[in-house]
Write a structure and sequence with these properties.
The protein is an alpha/beta fold and 217 residues long. It is built from eight helices and eight strands. It binds D-xylitol-5-phosphate (DX5) and zinc ion.
Length: 217
């Protein structure tokens, strides 16, 4: 798999979700940020909205669950129609069991790390995962400044993936823009979330193409 662009709809017009998703037709996935007001200090949307969204677009949905107790709630997001479900390792009680359950239900299983969470303790889990998401802002809000201090962790994650010969994708999320995407790609990321950069653009789909070109170098 080459470079993939997964725009976040967090900063789109959430009252016109299907129209907003129709504006990013060349995206590889739609990144949907689920926040519960507990794991992060913000509240967004959940299963019923995702079920409707899945019916209104042909693009696959990439759910990013910023919620407590993903062990209990994540499987419902597969049933709601998400092709990829990301849980936070800081919130998961049994990440291996959860990843296996997500896969068994038919979605790609992905694990996210907040900026202060290291990747090394999870080296042995990589084969259980279809994707690792490295947050490059503190989760909770769109439009924050990219944290360069996360770049060594992206590089380290890529090294570990190469060492184990796994096909795991490496996603970055937070502050990704035309200014920062090359740094992430150079460090080894191959899946790029961009929220405000895409939806603040006059032509979001054109921005998707520009981000892709920049990441491909
Ligand atoms: C932040 C979310 C991100 C966010 C990205 O907690 O996980 O997906 O929407 O937005 P930008 O690209 O504006 O940082
Ligand atoms: Zn996200």
């Amino acid at each position: 798999m080459g470079i993939q662009i997964t725009p976040s709809i967090l900063n789109a017009d959430l009252a016109s979700l299907s129209a907003e998703v129709a504006r990013i037709g060349s995206a590889d996935w739609v990144h949907v940020d689920v926040m519960d007001g507990h794991f992060v200090p913000n509240l967004t949307l959940g299963v019923p909205v995702i079920e409707s969204l899945a019916r209104s677009t042909d693009l696959p949905l990439d759910a990013h669950l910023m919620i407590d107790d993903p062990d209990r709630w994540a499987p419902a997001y597969v049933e709601a129609g998400c092709g990829s479900v990301t849980f936070h390792v800081e919130a998961a009680k049994a990440p291996i069991r959860l990843a296996r359950e997500i896969r068994a239900k038919g979605a790609r299983a992905s694990m996210a790390l907040k900026p202060a969470t290291p990747i090394d303790p999870y080296e042995d889990l990589l084969a259980e995962l279809d994707m690792v998401l490295i947050m490059t802002v503190e989760p909770g809000f769109g439009g924050q400044k990219f944290l360069d201090l996360c770049l060594p962790k992206i590089r380290r994650a890529r090294e570990l993936m190469d060492k184990h010969g796994v096909e795991t994708w490496l996603q970055v999320d937070g502050g990704v823009s035309l200014e920062t995407i090359e740094r992430c790609a150079e460090a080894g990321a191959d899946v790029f979330v961009a929220g405000s950069a895409v939806y603040a653009a006059d032509d979001p789909d054109r921005m998707v193409a520009e981000l892709r070109a920049r990441a491909e170098g």
